[in-house]
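Milestone M4 deliverable, item 7.
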Amino acid sequence: MKKVIFTIIVIIAIILTACAPQQLNQTSPPTAKEHVLLTPGELSWKPAPASLPAGAEIVVIEGNLSNAEPFIFRLKLPPNYKVAPHTHPAIEHVTVILGTFYFGAGGTFEPDKAKTLTAGSVGIFQPGQQMFAYTKGETIIQVHGVGPWGLTYLNPDDDPRKK
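Output delivered:
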């Protein structure tokens, strides 16, 4: 029994020794990126895409929203802001950073059926789910997922790009 255990230990030691030089000689993984460290003051807010009603601002932290790649962006929504019922083509993970975000599921804008999401709240929205949202005061949300990101209104007349 001791001989078997000793043999197993020797085999493990040989395998680890054989692998170690490859790991030590590799300075970083081939897909490694540099760290991104940003303070709130370093974020550069711009008008949100035309698919959102006027008044919102966006800062894209990572990725290109038009590409099939990971993305992170923040939206600053003014008081009394409304996003009519819509869907997204990709999953969205939403975190409320500041204020209160009112979110409702379904294809009809019904504020009394919306859930109140305060700072620190999280929502995960699957592709194609019908939803609507609004604010009462200034609200900042952070959205991340894998693109492309987009927004399709259930009622084409609600699409700000057509006004």
